[in-house]
Every structure is written in structure tokens, then in C-alpha cells.
Fold each of these.
Amino acid sequence: MALAGAVRCWRLGAGPSSLQMQALSLHMSKTAMGASQKDFESAMNQVKLLKKDPGNEVKLKLYALYKQTTEGPCNTPRPGVFDLINKAKWDAWNALGNLPKETARQNYVDLVSDLSSSDSSSQVKPEADRKQPGYETLVVTSEDSITKIMMNRPAKKNALTIQMYREIMLALEAASKDDSTIIVLTGNGDYYSSGNDLMNFMNIPPGEMEKEAKNGAILLRDFVGCFIDFPKPLVAVINGPAIGISVTILGLFDLVYASDRATFHTPFTHLGQSPEGCSSYTFPKIMGQAKAAEMLMFGKKLTAREACAQGLVTEVFPDSTFQKEVWTRLKAYSKLPRNTLHISKQSIRNLEKEKLHAVNAEENSVLQERWLSDECINAVMSFLSRKAKL
Ligand SMILES: CCCCCCCCCC/C=C\CC(=O)SCCNC(=O)CCNC(=O)[C@H](O)C(C)(C)COP(=O)(O)OP(=O)(O)OC[C@H]1O[C@@H](n2cnc3c(N)ncnc32)[C@H](O)[C@@H]1OP(=O)(O)O
């Protein structure tokens, strides 16, 4: 069973009461006697029904216990240094040493039982009830005429995987048609987003780099295009540091509210990359040529207050009251006449659309070439081999 397979599909299937029943029955069977093969199979099914992502550490533990139960001690060669995901999985399995299969099975069943119990109790939270199904990397909710799209990879600082770019596009597409007045993009955890997931550059077979760079540029063009064309008011709720693409697209938002803990960082030169998200056009327009150059060319990191002074951020709030103040404000705005608000947005934005699409296309063609450069490849390798951080 692949790690992804072990944890996929959590949002599908049984509702809270049936989950609670299954968790209870797993718990009863494990306490009465050692876990049976039937308990193990039931636990494997139970894993697929979990709604809350337990995080990578737990997923690795589940993977390792699964392998130990079904195959015994780790018996395969260690994957190569750049095969980071398989190496982490191998390490987790190998760490179980000679743990007997029966003990591994019991531990797997126990772990799933614990996860199911906390998952069931978390389901009574109102937000879980409102959560839209079908997203693995986002939590999308709608309430008070506001659709909130929350990036949900807190352990990875909400770094954007290919799947996440696609899910954000899907969520925006759905939100453009739902009955919400305002759409919010925000992050779960201590970061807003650390930008493009540098793992997107990994596991590319030899000789496929050019093709993948082309596909990456198409994906990025479509992603940024969704923001350019988005018809309703778009609000960024910046709960913490923001890096790379998560910063550059802010010029396409209508409001940007930031916690005073947030920072804004576009270190493209350090990464051998060039500006995207239409920032080569929107940033000089918003903050002037000189300030834009400091950010986009020289990678100057701005505090929330500096970003506000330069016009990139609408308003900064103290972190301790950030969520309360921002959501109170947004709930009030969401009661404004919906159609008028949307028409006003069109008036403000429509004149620029053609220009923005042209800028988007140009930026992506430059980036496509940058991704193939030694400067970019070395910077990515440096981060992934833990030699560099921003
Ligand atoms: C040829 C194919 C091309 C395909 C292209 C697809 C589309 C591309 C679009 C390109 C667009 C945009 C460019 C950008 O966005 S550039 C910005 C890229 N971001 C970074 O360089 C940030 C790198 N991260 C860091 O420097 C640090 O992690 C941090 C954010 C400063 C946080 O440091 P920390 O010490 O507080 O936490 P740390 O332990 O490092 O992080 C926790 C775990 O999260 C992982 N992680 C964080 N950010 C990223 C990231 N951007 N990519 C991948 N992984 C990330 C980190 O590795 C830790 O993981 P683990 O716990 O060790 O497993």
C-alpha cells in the first residue's frame, strides 16, 4: 500500500455517527485480545474515512506499521538521496527493526483507533460540517456569504504542490459560481504560504526536464489567469509569513489584510528564478519602480507594516486580535449589495485584464527558461539537501 493510498479519500464515506461506532468497535476489540487480521483490515478501511489530516509524521508511522505487519522487517535497499519521499518512508519502516508482525498489527490498530476517536470528536465542530468535500490540500468553507479557501499543509508551511495549484483553481472556479459575495484565501498554521513547493522540481526523469518546465509554465499561466479573471471581490487574509508566488499574486487581490507577524518575501534571484504572478507589472504600479526592484530583484523581505506603507497590504492588525477583527470586518462587507459590489470590481479591473494576461504569458516564458538554468537547479538542490533556507 502506498503512503498516499493509506491516507487518501478521508472525506468520502461515513458520517460522524458511523465513524464513532467503528472507532468504538475497534477500541473494544483491541482491549479484549490481540488485534486480529480482521481488526487490521477494518483499521485499514477506517484510515480511509478519516477526515482530519493526521500529518506526515503519523502517516509515516502508519506506513511503517503497515509494511512491518504485511512484510516483516524492512528488506529493500535504501532509496537514493534525492528520492526524499521514499527515503523517509524507508527510514520509518527500517526504524521498526525486528518488531514482530503481531505487535506491529496491534500498534497499527491502536493508532488508527486513537486517530478515529479524535477525528470523530472533531467532526462535531460546526466548521467541519460546513466544509466542502473533494479537496485534499485545502479546507474550503462557506458561511455568511463568504467562501473561505484555506491552504492546509501547515507542516510544510503551506508550500504549494502541483495538486494544490490545481485545487485552488477548482475552488476559485466553484466560488465564482456559488452564492457568496466575497472570497478569501488564507493559510492554516503559522505561515500564510512558503510559495512554490520545491519538491515540484524533484523526481523528474532524466531527459524530461524541458517537457516538465513547459507543463509547469502552463500550470502557472492558468493559475495566475484564474486570479486575473476572478469576477468577485478577492481578499487575502495573511495570517503569517508569505513567500514567492503567494506574495506576487497579491497585486491581483482587491483587499490584503495582514497580521503584524506576516512578512513578504520574493527571493527570486536567490533561487535563480524571475518574477511571476504579474508582479513585474503590478508591483512597480503599486509601490513604484525603486521599491519593486528592491523586492523582486534583490529579495528584500518586507514586514507587514512596510508592505502596508508601500500599498501592497490594505491594513495590518495585531496578531492577537487578527482573526477576530478581520472576520468581523469581512462579515460586515459581505452584507453589501452583492451585484453592485461585483460590478464595481469589474469596472476597476476590466481595463487591465488584457495587459495582465500578456504580462502573465511573458513572465511564464522567461521562468520556463530559468527553471532549466544551473542557477535555479543549484538553488533548489541546496534547499533540498538542507544547505540553504531563506
Ligand atoms: C521544472 C518543473 C517546474 C514545476 C513548477 C510548477 C509551478 C512553479 C511555480 C513557481 C512559482 C513560484 C516561485 C516561488 O514561489 S519561489 C519561493 C519558493 N519557496 C522557498 O524557497 C521557501 C523554502 N523554504 C524555506 O526556506 C524554509 O522552509 C522556511 C519557509 C523559511 C521555513 O523555515 P523553518 O525553519 O521555519 O521551517 P522548515 O523546517 O524549513 O519547514 C518545515 C517543513 O516544510 C518544508 N517546506 C517549507 N517550505 C517549503 C517549500 N517551499 N518547498 C518544499 N518544502 C518546504 C520544509 O522542508 C520542512 O519539511 P520537513 O519537515 O523537513 O519535511
Amino acid sequence: MEEEAPSRISVAVRCRPLSENERSNMVHSICRVMDRRLVILLDPGASAANDYLRQDKSKEKRFAFDQAFGSDVDTQTLFQATAEPLIKSVLQGYNATVFAYGSTGAGKTFTMIGTPSEPGIMFRSVEEIFRGGDILSCSVSCSFVEVYNENLRDLGSSDIREGMLDLREDPVTGSYVAGITEIQAESVQEVMDLLQHGNGRRTTEPTAMNVTSSRSHAVLQVRVERRQGSGTLMGKLSMIDLAGSERASETKNSGVRLLEGANINRSLLALGNCINALASGSHFVPYRDSKLTRLLKDSLGGNCRTVMVANVSPSHLSYEDTLNTLKYANRAKNIRVRAKQILVTPDEHVSEYEHAISDLRNEVSLLKSKLAQRSAVPDAVEGDENVLKEASENWKLEVIRNLEGRTSLQRSLIDVERGLAQWRVELDQAKEIIQHWEARSESPSSRRSDARSLEDWREAIAQIEENIKENNETRRSLAERLQQNKTAGRELQKQLSQRVLNQDLRAFLELIQRVQVLEVERLELDHFWEIHRQQLEQRDQEIAMLREQLRLRNSHIQQQRQQLSKEKVPGHVFLLGSTLAESSPVQQRGPLRVMQAWAPAREEDEDRGASLEEAEDFSLQDKINWRALEVPLASQIKGLAQLQQNAGTSRLFAAKALRSIPESRPRRPLALAQGGVALPPARPQPREPREPREPREPRERERESGNASPSQMRGSTCPPLRRKSTLEAPARQPSVGDMRSPPRGLLRAHGVAVPQRQLDKNVGARDKSRARARSEHSRLGRIGRSLVTPGR
Ligand SMILES: Nc1ncnc2c1ncn2[C@@H]1O[C@H](COP(=O)(O)OP(=O)(O)OP(=O)(O)O)[C@@H](O)[C@H]1O
């Protein structure tokens, strides 16, 4: 391996001509080139008479370079003076670099790549390599890479989506780009094609300074391997078209362009620092500061012959940029390089191959172990990548279809559930209304018209029941299909490891599936939440109703006690009142029972006078008809108060006490029942023939229709009771329909005539409950008074 004597980097300056555009805009040239070596730069500001700051400054700057070319010099001349001498070195196994440096629009791309009519240094160099070397004994390979925003992009790849490349270092060949496309060129035309194709893919953008400004550094590397005796000479020519050095204020860049500019300047600054370090002979050169300097490490210092072409613009508007470029190039002149010939002998080749073979063996064993971990698959499938791809694609489609089906089934199920809930509410309401009409139709006056309405309602109920039946059927079938869909989904999940072999793809597909499953599960949760919310609402309404009942009961008891005390009833009756208040039926039997117990009697009972005989049918197992109960005579309940006071009184005593009530009077098991005493079934009493009722007064009828004023009610001996129809059926639990006002629109939609009373059910409901409370209180007061009436 031969080593040259140290030499300096060769620096050439090229000044481009003024463009047509610049000429028409009165731009004048301030750059002169003398003797192919001297560059004179005129300061355009110094000519201004009023610029006192610049008066003492020199009007021109002079720089001497290895070569200098004016605007009249063509690229061929430049090439012959700068790059051509390097080609001979490359063919001799040396590394060489040519790079163009300069501000944006100064002519770097024109110099390095050129145009079809005026090809640049890159094309001419490759042409020279093919011309100079014995083509049969040479192997020429080219790669074209771009450094954009500190990333490496393969400009030679046909796949435009090719990702970023890695920069690595080899102790023998220096920096190289791993995985880059290398073209084994057989002719100059192939390299020209690569250049044109790659340059077309370069990142360019119009800036204020250049309509096709290169925003990246483009690097063409040509490797030449030439057999020489028993060895191979390995030379590399790197040709770089740097992005323009620029000042953000002048390019008027912003956003992405500004970021690009920052990255360009960063790499150029790193390049400048490396040039400074190399020029000053420093031991440390900061190559690692940027991708560009890492890539050009062995093209700048050490084992390389380097030519720098500094491009400048002659425009007086670019004075500052041109001055900076010239200063930069002037420093680069001092870089000393010592090129080394790279001759690789067969022995070195053998050792390299041995290394490579051992690396490959390691890799093969690693891959084999990975393969062994995979589940066994048919050979045909394993071998053919297209088949594998198709299999994964099919699996993905099946999963998506499965989950889409599940979502749609789930949605339909939710809709059906909602519909069912709505129909049930309507059914309850319709039944309630029918009860009301049935009660009304007992009166002969309204019988005919009521019968018609009743018929309508029955038809509506039949229709609703039919709908509920259909919906139930649909729900059952949907639930079944949902179950089948879930089973199919689980089956698909199991098949994944067999059908998709690529781990990453499998992970990806699993992720997609998981997301979709979560989506469906969210839908299910929404559904359950909706159902629970409805149930909670129902419960809340039940609780609210029970509270109202309790409040009414307490108020009745309170008023009754006050009434009894005003009337100066005997102590034991007062005691009975206390008993009523103190031993709450709620504590003893639960709120529902109490609600039923406080349900006023049915309207027809009241019409018949709520006969005492019917009260005899009372038992704890049956509904408690509080309306039918009356307080017993004082003489009849002797001992009961004492009995009540003694908490823990045995059932036996209670039964005895009850039996002590004379048979001639109907038994009133109120206190016993309130005290939680189990009562024996009442013996049926023979019914006494009822006296015919007197026709009711209009005032009384008014009271019954719920329009009576509170004063009218107070004066009444037997106040009528208005009640919710819900309370007329105490044997069943209150349903949603009992609690809510009916959706009238829906009812009317069925063509059902909704009675006015039903429509106004909830209007003034509170007033009605108060009226009921008052009338009940009045009734109890009447009973209390009757207990203390002498002779009773
Ligand atoms: N020596 C020359 N003779 C004729 N025209 C030239 C010469 N040098 C440059 N030009 C023209 O000047 C314009 C700018 O040149 P070019 O694009 O090469 O600049 P650049 O330094 O590469 O700019 P950037 O850094 O923005 O990419 C182009 O239209 C080019 O054709």
C-alpha cells in the first residue's frame, strides 16, 4: 500500500454569469477573476458616498485559490482542471472527493450535476473512469444518496417509499451507507440514468433566492475495483452537491423551510468546523457533529485527494454570501491530506471472507432458532411469501367481518330491548285504563259509550301484546346469532398463530382485533348500563311513592290522635291511637305491605258502603284492606292496650284477647294486626241484606268526582275517596306503568281514545293525595267520635 506525500486540499472558485432576470433587474456584477487564480470581490456599499461607516473600508477583497473560473468558463474546462486529475488517482486505488460549496443559487448543482446540454462534474467523471480504465478489468458501482434534515435517503432506489438509511463505518473502506442501492454500471449511460432519476427525486423547493433550490446534500459515490496482479485496487470517488449555505432572513423561509435551512446550516457549520480543525492540524476533528461530515470523513481528511469547488454569484445583492463563501474556501486551502492507495491482496480478501462467512453462519443459526420457535406450518405456505400475505389478509378480513357483524347484532339487540321496554310500559298503561273503563261501565248511564271505548282498548292491548311477542322472538334470535358470532370470533383468534406467521403482522392484527373487540364491548356495556339505569329509575319511583304513603299515614295518625284527645276520649282509646303511631306497620311488614294496606278501598266498595262483613275476610296472608277496618268499641278492646304495652306479649294472649270480643260485634283486629300478632282466619259472617241507597245529592257526586273543596270534605260524614288506580290492585307490585304518566302520543297513535281523567292523572296528583289524606282523617275522626258516643 503506497502513501503519497502530504498535500493540501485543492480549492477552486467558480463564479457564475448573471442570469437574464438579474440583468433586467439592474443587478450588477461585483466579482472578477484574474489569472485563473485570483478572485476580486467589490464591496457594493463602499461606492455609496453617504455610507460613512464603510468609507475607511477597502473597496475590494482579494483571494487567491488553486484555481478560479469566471463566468465565461464552461464546465468541461472546470472539470479538466479540477476533477479529471482525481480520476487517475481513483483508478490507481485512491479515494477522491469533489464537492461544491456555496450559497443558494450560486451554481453548485449546475457545476456538479449540470444539464443534459451541459453535463456536470459527476457525469464527466464517470465518463472519464470508463474511458480511462480498462473496462474488462474494472468493476464500477455507483450509489446516490441524499442527506435531508439529518437523514439519509436512497436516491437510487426504485421504491419511492424506501425508508431512511443507516450510516456505518468500516475500518478498511471507511464510512458507508448500509443497505444503499448500488448499481453495477456497465456504461456511462447507466450512471447518467441514475443521476437523472436520483436528481428528480431530490428534495427541492423554490426559495426567494432560487426557484429550484436544493434542500439536501446529494452524494454520488463511484467505487472502482481494478484487478492489478494478484490484488485489487479499490478506489472511491465521492462527488457532493451540497445544499446552499443561506441566511434565513434573505431566503424569507418559514416553517418547514426554516427547519430545513437550520439543518442545512448545521451540517455546513459542522463541515466548516471540520475544515477548520483539519486546516489547523488539530488532532480532534468533529466529524460526528453531522451526518454529512460523518459521510465525508475519509473524503475530507486522511486517506483522500479532495477538490473543493466554491461557487459564487456575481450579483451585488449576494455580496455578503459571496464574501462568506470565499472566506470559507480560503480556510479550506490549508487542509492537508495524505492519500493512501488501497490495494487489497488475496490474503486480505481471504481473511475478510472468513470473517464474512463466520458472521453469516451466526446469522443463519440465529434465523434457524427463530424458525424452530414457530409453529409447524405446511411447506408450501412457508415457502411462498405471497401465500403468507394472502393468508394474513384473509384472516384480517374475516376478523373485521366478524366484528362488524357483532357490532350490528349488538345494536339491533339494544334497539329491540328498548322497543320491548316501551311496549311493556304501554301495555301497563292500557290495562290500567281498561280497569278504569270497566269500573265506569258498571254505571248504566255510561254503559253503551264505555263499551265502545273498552273494545278499542282491548284491541290496542291485543296489538301491543302481539308486538311484544314479535319483539321477544326477534330478541331471542338475535341473542342466538350473537352467541354464534362470538364463538366464530374465538375460533378465528385460535387460528391466528397458524394462519399468520409473521410475528409483527400477527401483533398488528391482534391489536386491530383487540381495538375492535373493545369497541363492541363498550357497546355492550352501554347497553347494560342503559338497562340498569332504567331499573334504578323504577326503583327510585317506587321509593318515592312509598315515602309519600308513609308520610300520609303518619299525618293521618297524628291528626287522629289530636282529634281523639280533643274529644276527651278515654285513656285506653288514646292509648290505641298511640299504638297506631308507635308501632309502625312499616317496621313490621315492609313498605310494600304498608302501601297495599293503606290503599283505599275500591270504588264499588265505597258505593256499597264498604260493609263490615267484607272486613271479616281479613287475614295477614291476604291483602290488608285498611279501608274496611274500623276501630273497635272501647268495651271490646279492654286489655288490648295493656297487651300492647307489654312488649313481647305472646300470640296466645293476643288470640285470647281477640276471642274475648263478643261475636255479636264484628271483630276489629286492627290493633292486633298492627302489633304484629298473627291472627286466626276470620269466620265468615252472614251478610245482612243491604238497604237500598238513597239517590246521592249533586254535592256528593261532585265530591266523588274529585272536585269537592276541602271545606265540603270536612263537613262530609262519609267523605269520598279519590285514588290512583295503581292502588286499586294492591296484590301486585307497582310497575313502571303505574308510576309514569302515559306517553299520550303513543297511545293516540294506536287510535285509542284516552279518557280525560287518565290524561290528567298526574295533573294535581299531589292535591288529590292531600284530599285523600283529609278525607281519611275525617273518616277516622268519625270512627273515634262514634267510639265515645254514649249509648254506642
Ligand atoms: N456557470 C453557469 N452558467 C450558466 N448558468 C448557471 C451557471 N451556474 C448556475 N447557473 C444557473 O443559475 C441558477 C442557479 O444555479 P443552481 O441551481 O445550480 O444553484 P445552486 O447553488 O445549486 O442553488 P441551491 O443551493 O439553492 O440548490 C440555475 O438556473 C442555473 O442554471
Amino acid sequence: MGTDKAIDKLDTIVIGWGKGGKTLAGVLARAGEKVAIVEQSAQMYGGTCINIGCVPTKTLIHDAEQVGGGEPDPQRFERAVQRRDDLTAMLRAKNYSMLNDLESTLVITGHASFIDPKTIVVRTEQEELELSAERIIINTGAQPAIPKIEGAQITGRVHDSTSIQHAPLPASLIVVGGGYVGVEFASMFGQFGSKVTVLDRGQRALSKEDADVAAEVQSCLEDANVTILSHAQVNEISQDDSSATVSFEVDGERQQLSAEAVLVALGRTPATDGLNLQAAGVQTGERGEIVVDEFLATNVEGIYALGDVRGGQQFTYVSLDDHRVLANHLLGDGTRSIRDREAVPYTIFCTPPLSRVGLSEDQARAEGRDIKIAVKKAAAVAAMPRPKIVGDPRGIIKFVVDAHSDQILGAALMHVDSQEVINLVAMAIRVKMTATQLKDQIFTHPSSTEAINEVLGELR
Ligand SMILES: Cc1cc2nc3c(=O)[nH]c(=O)nc-3n(C[C@H](O)[C@H](O)[C@H](O)COP(=O)(O)OP(=O)(O)OC[C@H]3O[C@@H](n4cnc5c(N)ncnc54)[C@H](O)[C@@H]3O)c2cc1C
Ligand SMILES: NC(=O)c1ccc[n+]([C@@H]2O[C@H](COP(=O)([O-])OP(=O)(O)OC[C@H]3O[C@@H](n4cnc5c(N)ncnc54)[C@H](O)[C@@H]3O)[C@@H](O)[C@H]2O)c1
């Protein structure tokens, strides 16, 4: 698929098919603009989320949860991989036609780089194309960070989050990095039967979470065949025909572990290499991120950036909201800004999922706030039969509330369906609902949401 339409003069070029950029391309085209979207790989129409990020990983996690541990079953894993591939192929094709079917949108498959502030060159499989437009929007996402660890190059038994999705089910796996990617893959492979060890340099697992919440996650990971080693500073990775070995230090003591495969998950770096931003004069920051103002404008007139490439929180829904800010700035009344976001929640899809919004107890205390806490293990919530019905009553539910105003400051929900319930809590925070008002809402039954009635009754 390449350039099958001729559009004489472009108004906007979008570089990279990320969530925000593709949505904005559609909005601008429907508003009458002539738009080109440039994506470097036909396997990436639709961007990271649907091809190598959220959707494929959550599909595998869902299927792993149906297995729930035991001996590795490669055939079952292969069936899950096939289901994932079918789903991502369907979404990729749909994404392609969503833009390509628009009369005034040109889809170009090739790698883009700047020649000057209004012009890019696109290297397709067949040719080099020069494209110019008054407005250029950069939405090239992020890529796995390459750590300064000897032997950490992605080859053979050493993987990043993309390559491991195409590797056979390992009997044993070492995950370097206990962040989102590390925890999700550890939990997933553990439930498919791999013996998993996570090495993280943090003081304890999930060190950004309160100790009681992190302990619950760690306990559920242990149920899933996963061991977490904290304070682990990885120095070297080596591999041969049969295994890979990771050398690391814990409190100055040198240790080694071997496994069939290693996953390196040490963050994602804004994808600005190869864009030749100097030719356009676009300013970047310390991590290579494109520097933008609150309306997503770069320092160069007519050039904007959105999504992971501009630094900030790396979530699909943040990239999507970036598109709302930019659309409002370009076509609307200009009142939206990335600074007006409040209570942005997140979910780490371990099993059961951990979802968070706002302040943790530790953060609230560090800010010197006078707070009340409500906390209960999910299994102890009498009026929440849903997790028991679906067979996983594990987890913890915690609310942090201002002792004087009764405003909800934050929540940590770790239980079945928490990825849904957290959105309701986030909205309650945004509309400034008090904890008492939220506690007394009517919720459906049997649902996971109704735990809120009981847990918020425990505030003290
Ligand atoms: C394994 C994994 C799981 C994740 N799970 C979640 C999750 O559950 N929930 C969540 O919200 N977020 C998740 N994320 C993060 C989320 O995927 C990203 O934050 C989001 O996809 C970023 O979107 P974006 O709009 O910045 O661009 P992307 O979707 O990253 O798109 C950028 C596109 O630009 C293309 N490109 C790059 N350079 C060029 C160039 N020079 N020329 C042409 N094209 C180029 C790339 O090929 C890519 O398709 C996950 C990420 C990973 C890696
Ligand atoms: N469910 C989701 O929303 C989801 C899922 C996956 C990824 N993501 C996004 O992708 C981004 C990247 O995820 P990630 O997990 O790669 O990065 P991350 O920043 O979340 O985690 C990296 C981890 O590696 C550890 N670390 C760093 N250097 C180390 C070293 N040398 N030795 C040992 N440990 C080290 C850090 O302490 C940290 O815990 C996330 O920030 C997130 O925004 C989101």
C-alpha cells in the first residue's frame, strides 16, 4: 500500500501513525484540508497501540489468565498468539481504510525526515518523495530505550517488548526492569507457565506505589510463577546456544542468573532519531523529546508534536487527548491545553489489574496533607461478589481523602475490572465529588464498582 492518490497541494503532513496523529488527520481532512499521513512500516498502520503495544499485550494477558499457571503449554500459547495476530491484522486494515478511504487524505508508506521547516523527504520502498505543507505534525511515538549494559542488544535470546511477542514460549525468562512493560510481561508469561524473575534497581517492587499496594501486587505475581529481585543493578547480559545469562549486583554483591530468554524493559525513548530535526530547527530536550508548549506547538512556526515523542506520560489515551488539544487550537476556540488535565488514571495489567489515580497515601503525606484513608483487601469486601463470581477475589482497594474537605485525593484499586472502575473514580475527582457523595451512589449488582459503597464507609 503506498501512494495511490494524487493530491496537488497539501495543507498538513502528519509524520507517524500514532493515536493522536491519525485521529487529527481524520479531523482535519473532514474539515476540508488536504492531509498526508506518512508511516514508515505497513505493519504499523494504526501505530504502537494496536500493533505492538496495548492491544496485542492485553490480548495475550487475557488468554494467559484463562490458563492461570501450571506447566508451560506451547500449543495453547501458539493459539493465543494466533488470536492476537488475527485481531491486530483486522485492526491494522481497519485503521488503514479509515484514513485511506477519505478523499482528501494521502497515505504514504515510508520513512520521513525533514529537509527544511516546510518540507520532508519520504523514503518509500520504491522512491524518494518530497512533500511540502504549511503545517507538519510529528507523531512518531517512542522506541525501547537502549541501556548502557554490555550485551543488551536485541538479538537472539535477548528481547525487547516487540521481539518477545514473536518468540516461542520460554520455559524460563528474566525480565530486566520492573515497570509497566516488565510487570505485565512477567505476569503474562508466568501465567502461561514460564518461570519468571524480574530484576529491578528500585528499593522494592513498584516503589512508586504504597507499600501495602505493592505487597499485594508482589503476592499476586508470586502466585503467577514470578519472583521479583529489587536493588538489582544489571551490568551485563551474555548468551549462547542454550541460554542467556544476566550478571547483576544486589547491595554490592555480584550475582548471575540464566534463563531461556531475557526481556529488556527499561523505558521508552522518544522516536526522534532519523527525523533530521536540525534541518527544521526543531528543539529537543535531554531525552530526545520534542519540546512543545501547552498547545503542542514546537519552537518552529507550523510544526507541532503530540503523543510519546513530546515526552510526558506515555499512554494511548494521552496521545488521543493531545489530538483534542491540537484540534481545539487549530480549528476551535483555543481554550484547551495539556495543562488542563486532571486526575489522569492508569492501569498496570497484571492479574488482577492495578489501577491508580491521583495521590497515593505516601505522596499525600509527603505533601503534608491531613488525610483520611479507607483500605480493604478485595476478598474482605462483603458487598462485592463480582470477583468471587469470576474466581479471582485477590487484590486491595484504597482511597486517600482530604480530612477537612472530604475531597477524594487518590485511589489504588487492584481487583478484577479495576481498569473500568478507576475511570469512574477519576471522573468523581474531576467533578469535585466528595468521598461521602461517591460512597452513597447507586451502583449495579453484582459489579466490582459497588465495592466503593463499602470501602469508603471505612474512612478514618
Ligand atoms: C508493550 C507495550 C504495551 C503498552 N500498553 C499500554 C496500555 O495498555 N495502555 C496505554 O495507554 N498505553 C500502553 N502503551 C503505551 C502506548 O502504546 C503509547 O503511549 C502510544 O501508543 C503512543 O502513541 P503515539 O501517538 O505517541 O505514537 P505511536 O502509536 O507510537 O505511533 C508512532 C508511529 O510513527 C511511526 N514512525 C516513527 N518514526 C517515523 C518516521 N521517521 N517516519 C514515518 N513514520 C515513523 C512508527 O512506526 C509508529 O507507527 C504500551 C506500550 C508498549 C510498548
Ligand atoms: N498499561 C499501560 O498503560 C502500559 C503498559 C506498558 C507500557 N506502558 C508505557 O510504556 C512506558 C515504558 O514502559 P517500561 O516498563 O519500559 O518503562 P518504565 O519506565 O515504566 O519502567 C522501567 C523500569 O526499569 C527500571 N530500571 C531502569 N534502569 C534499570 C537498570 N539499569 N537495571 C534495573 N532496573 C532498571 C526502573 O526502576 C523502572 O522500574 C511506560 O512508561 C508506560 O507509559 C504503559
